[in-house]
Structures are given as C-alpha cells and as structure tokens.
Amino acid sequence: MKVLVADRLEKDGLAVLEKEKGLETDVKLGLKPEALKEIVGAYDAVIVRSGTRLTKDIIEAAGNLKVIGRAGVGVDNVDLEAATKRGIIVMNTPEGNTTATAELTMTMILALARKVPQAYLSITQGKWQRSEFMGTELNGKTLGVVGMGRIGREVARRASQGFGMKVLGYDPFITEDSVKQFPVTFCDLKKLFRQADFITVHTPLTPETKHLVDEKAFEIMKPGVRVINCARGGIIDEKALLKAIKSGKVAGCALDVFEKEPPGNHPLLKCPEVIATPHLGAATHEAQENVSVAVAHQVIDALKNRAIRNAVNLPSLDPETYRVLRPWIVLAERLGLLHTQLFGGKLREVTVRYCGEVTQYPVASLTIAVLKGLLAPICGPQVNFVNAPALAQERGIVVNESKTTEAKDFANFIEIETGANHEKNRMMGILFGNQEPRLVKINEFLLDAEPKGYMLFIHNEDRPGVVGNLGTILGRNSVNIAEMTLGRIKKQNKTMALTVINTDQEVPAKVLAEIKKLAPIIDVKLVKL
Fold first, then answer.
1. How far apart are CA 519 and CA 179, in angstroms?
2. Which domain holds residue 344?
3. Which positions ≥6 away from 499 have C-beta within 8 Å?
4. Is the pTM for the entire model greater than 0.70?
5. Buried b / exposed e across 188-212, counting CB within 10 Å, b at 16+?
6. CATH classification at residue 521
7. Is 13 within 8 Å of 33 (Cβ atoms)?
8. What residues are labeled active site?
9. In this predicted model, what pLDDT tens digit does every residue of 148-168 receive, in sequence order?
10. pLDDT per position as a tens digit, 7-16
C-alpha cells in the first residue's frame, strides 16, 4: 500500500509511516493541482495539512484512495461530499493542540497582568520606565472561562491550581456534574461578565457564538477587565472591543486570532493595551509532532482495518448497508442539527427511537449521526462520527436507543426525545420515497417540511392574516419562500400554530425582529442546515 504525504509532516510522524511493514511512503510537497491529479490515483492514502486542497476532481481521479488524513482540526480543504460518495474515509486530529492552546492562553493572561510585551518594547528603546508598567497579580483574581471543552478545562485547571485564581465557567451545553473534578464554579454568562477580572473564550465559532462578546457584554463587565481570545476570530466583536478599550472599560486585551487573518493594518493593533500573536495556538513543536504522529497511526490503522478514529465523514459500514442507510444517516444528522438550534439548553438525556424497516439494520450508526448533529452547533468542526459518543459522555449526556415495530403516525421513522432543564422536546423524521428526508413532527405539531437550507420556525396563535403578514414581510425584504408547512393544535381553548418556512436565502436579523413584533407571534427562530 502507498501513502502520499502532500504537506509537511514532522519527522516523528514520518518515522511511524516508514517503519510500518507493507507500506510505501512518498513525500511530495508543494504539488500543483494538476500534478497532484496526475499521480494521486496510485495511492491508497493521502496525508495533508492545510496547504493542499483535495478538490472534487482530484478525489475523483484517485481510483485507489481509501483514506485521507488531515494533520490538524479543520478539513475545509477536503471535499467531504466527494470523498464520502467514493467511500473514502476522511479523518482529522482534533486533540493534538489542547495543551499548546491552554498554555498559550496562560501566557497571554500573564503577559496582560504584568504588561510584559509593552515593557520589553520600552526597554529595547533604551528606556527604564518601571512606574509605567505597574501590573496586577493573578492570585485571588477571578477568571471567567467561556466554553468548558477540553481547552477551557485545562485553562481552568492551570489558573486555579497554578496561580490561585477563582474560576467561573460558562457553557450552556455541559452539565456541572460532567466537570465536577475541575476547579470551576458554573454560572450564567451575565454573572461571569460582571464578576470576572480576566475573561477568556474557548468556544468554536458558530452562528450562536459569533460576537458572543459584544457591546452589551462589555457594558456589564468590571472596569479594568482583561480579555483573551485564543480560540477563533469573531467570537469577540472587534469593533465593540475597540470601543471598550478606548473608553477605559477594558484595561488589556490579548488576541491570537482575528475575524480576518492576517489582520493587516487593524486599529486594535495600534492600541497600547493590546498584545497579539499570529494564530499560534497550535504552534509548538510538541503539538505539531502530536498531530503528525496521530495522523500517521490513524492512517495506518484504517488502511490495515485495525480501527477508524476521528473519521469526520461517515461511520464504517459495508457498501450494501451504507447504500440503504445513507439517506437515514442524512436524516438523523439533520434532525440533531435542527433540534439543538431550535431548543438548545444543557442536554442531559437523549433518546433515539426507530420504527419500521430501518430496525432491520445496525442503527448504532444512526444514533451516532444524531449525536453528531446535536453536538455540531456546540462543538464545531471537532465533532465527528467517531468521537460524537465520547463527546456526549464527556458532557454528561445519557444516550438511550430503542427499536419498535409499533407504528405511531408513520410506519418508518426516527424520533428524537431530549431532556434538559426539566423540559422534554421531541422531533420525528421520515424518508419520502426512501430517499428524501422530511420533518413530520415537533412535539405535538404534525408537519411536512424538508429539513434543508434556511428554515424559519414561527410559533404563534392561529389567527386570520398571520400567514399573509409573514409573506408580506418576507416579500418586502426580498426573501423568497421556497416551501411552507403549518401544524396546528388546540391548547387551553386556543388554537396554536407552528409555521415552518424554507427560504432561498438567510433571513436578516431586522426581518426576524419585524416578524416578532406581530401580535400573534410567540417565538421566531431561524435555523440553518
């Protein structure tokens, strides 16, 4: 078997490949797309970082390709759909940078507290201005950690145990029980903003976390707060941050990431209160070696049918089973994606029920697809079909799976029921013509909607004129309606409706606000699948 290393791999990772018997490894860096397309058909596996793009035409030319390994987290340089259609396993290495990023975060916190970069710059200019660089101690201060995944937890551990800081944690998708071994006091986001002396963010960038730290957040923070972002550019609203620095609310800010990279002549970089690094979160020899060694082992194990770890496209199924289950997998993942975006909350329990012909097949892969969908808006690109169960367990989510031959409203279906914050929500999906996913039930509402693209979910009292007003508002704002379905129930002497509208484009926030002002409207949510 032959492996092509198309981007730089650390020597320890190359050594793993070269020592494996029955494996031939070629290192060919910097190949142009046409050159790569010409030779890729000879290889069973390709290992890349972020430099090489494996596009649809290159993947289609790879007649023998079985595995694509990405040494790093993101896989946006790989055409996942093309790889999946050809049965190629795509895997990444999501855990290799945990320590490196946690340590960089602590470096930033210390540098902010003691004004190290500014003092260094001053002394290199021949100055000796000790009084200009009076710092603050970390001991006894409060650190707010937004996002309690692997990196957030490691930062909390280091800050508390190493520097005597009190740690407040916020994560709406993790239960306190799942992190009780960590020195963290959970609280809501507003309390964290109000009480923290230092605030560090460790969430993926999703529609829900974009500008999570905005102008309103800065308004309620302590005067003199210090803010750190070593996660993703865009979590902190940079315009609001600049305003908060100039007003004196923010005493210092450390940024490893920016909304646009490289940031160029960014106004934040002209502020003496700001220290910055060029996206160095994973830039340590150890982290690079970790991902290089990890991807080498993963590729070898996959090629030799030992194990599949960190696959980002599909669970391992034989071709015939995959042919039957593929549309169910798509449905299951979309139901999970939809469920979290609609209901959110701290998931404590997930029950997945199957009915009909699908129960004749191994449904474990479908349950994993549900979990991947549920966790994707929370965890971002690190969640995949292999680690989704582990991530659910890490967050204290109990997962139940059941099969039944007792049909309810439909003969073949997948139903998700979640429990969170003493509330339960249910969602049911079916396949139309054994191929097309359809959303047919949300709690008590019966529907017939295609879970695809942009979807508006509008909960309202069923009164005359509501649908017409919705159409008018959307039309006036050049939002085209692709499909619409309506479910109704009687509740406390009122008829309640759930209107689901598929649109051809994203609905702007100002349009959502206008819809919310309509008298019968109870709630409006926009979902993207």
1. 43
2. 314-439
3. 456, 457, 458, 460, 466, 467, 470, 484, 485, 486
4. no
5. ebeebbebbbbbbbbbbbbeebebb
6. 3.30.70.260
7. no
8. 232, 261, 279
9. 988 999 999 999 999 999 999
10. 999 999 999 9
